[in-house]
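thought: fold this chain, then report.
action: predict
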Amino acid sequence: MSYDIYAEKIILNYEHPHNKGILKGANTHFKEYNQVCGDEIEVYIIINNKKIKDVKFIGRGCAISMASASMITDFIKGKSIKEIEQYNGDIIKNILGIDPGPVRMKCATLSLRAIKEAIERYKIKK
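observation:
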């Protein structure tokens, strides 16, 4: 695949994000903020039997951070929290289909950091 196809995928997910909104009935949530650029993401998650039953997000930011949030929320549905805890920036690169580079990596991983922190808060409550 060419780089243009990946760029189109990112733009499409930025302009028409999946899973955007507040999830009623969420049993954990967390808001993450990127101080460098001002992007922010708040994730709402329903965890059931140690798996992600549903997830949504709200926020604002650049195309990379918003597209990444849309794509990672699709990707983690049905995954175990143990599996998600192992994810790092490499999973974001795979989902996006590109390496955003060191400067944009904080934007790309913002939603993953929020998801992992929401999971940690869920585990503390349990």
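thought: worth noting. The two ends are 44 Å apart (CA to CA).
final: tokens above.
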